[in-house]
Amino acid sequence: MASVSPLNFLKDKTIFVTGATGFLAKVFVEKILRTQPNVKKLYLLVRAPDPDFAMKRILNEFVETELFRVVRDEVGANLKSFISEKIVAVAGDVSDTNLGVKDSKLMEEMWTEIDLLLNFAAITNFDERYDYAYKVNTMGAFNVLNFAKNCIKINMLLHVSTAYVCGEASGLIPENPINIGEALKNTRKLDLTIEKELIQEKLNQLQAKGAGQNELASTMTDLGINRATLYGWPNTYVFTKAMGEMMLGEYRETIPLLIIRPTMITSTFAEPFPGWIEGLRGIDGPIAGYGKGKLKFLLANPMTIVDMIPADMVVNSIIMAMAANTQQHSRIIYHIGSSRTNPIKMTDIHKFARQYFIEHPLKNKDGKPIKVRKCRFFKTPASFHAWIGIRYVMPLKVCIPNTYFDVTNSQNLQLTMEENAQEANAFNFDPKGIDWEDYIVNTHIAGLVKYVLK
Ligand SMILES: NC(=O)c1ccc[n+]([C@@H]2O[C@H](COP(=O)([O-])OP(=O)(O)OC[C@H]3O[C@@H](n4cnc5c(N)ncnc54)[C@H](OP(=O)(O)O)[C@@H]3O)[C@@H](O)[C@H]2O)c1
What we know:
This protein is an alpha/beta fold. 45% of the residues lie in helices and 12% in strands.
């Protein structure tokens, strides 16, 4: 692969981003505006009733936040004109046809101007209602693809998926596509039309019997878990994301498609500054629970590899993947994770979290420091139940199987980057460079406490 310059690639590009108020998309948009202010325009799709409200959300949830501090400082007094020149707020919804864009003039303009379309939008709650998750994670991907097909000079559709579309498989997971209808339990054939009809049928039944909101929610949540389990996925989120990938692969025709499958995304490693994070995600719930003195044991093998990757590295890989694959018409899949090249074990995360909270204890309601003790690990539900002396407490699963994600494609990208030394640091996404102890103690948990637990 020839050497490429991501900065040259981004210059004068018009980029459409869905899920623009989400954690990862914000890191992406910030990076573009900070490193390549000569990008032509960014259309940002936001769930909102109208463009004014969409812009308000972009200002409140992004431009005025700490994440955007470096850009704000650099642009200074020109911030307002910089934002209005570069950002167009688009009110819409990926679950609707034409992504819910109502203004036909705006839509024509977008179809004419867009070079790159990035789909970050998703429902990331693991056990979401099936109807909601299917509409956004599966049909949303399909709607974004159809929108891309109308864009006359589209250069790339980049879809952010998840490495866990592989379900609970263990061993080395290749960067392979998932073909339509392919279930993880190979005794079953998955039919996406049947899934759609099943959802509608269930909703009709519930409405016919006058079910209230609570019953609707719990029935649709259970339906998602049941369907996911039936076909071999552990939760509704990864199941519907896998079906989203199937849609894209099956119907993309000649649209150049990149599928980025990050593992567990953590706080920024370096840019725009280390440790920025939003919300409790992935391993952060357990880390926060531990710091608060509430988590005393873990149902997991301490030697399990936990695949984490900082958000800015994911974003750098996204930009590099687009720059390196411009002019291609294929579908390429990238795993973005650390388990293959710089693995970290559960026991080490625990050790580093303990180290952090011993040095910087959280305070309880009375302002007193919370003491943390070593967590006890149970490798199986049986060993846990034997310890507490009760046969059955609740269905518990052993946390994560030992999974390694093949990263051959992203390593090739990294090589391309290294050949262009000038921009290699600015777009680094090599997890080999992470010193996990330093990152978890001084960056990640410090960031979690500062921005989330505050
Ligand atoms: N975070 C991780 O560890 C991780 C790991 C692997 C892959 N991923 C993938 O990375 C992508 C970004 O994840 P994230 O962590 O940034 O998620 P996030 O913070 O939950 O953001 C999700 C975004 O999607 C938007 N959205 C939801 N439903 C929508 C709809 N119907 N129409 C338009 N937008 C909609 C949300 O808008 P609102 O603000 O209106 O809710 C939000 O902007 C997702 O595709 C996710 O599957 C994430």
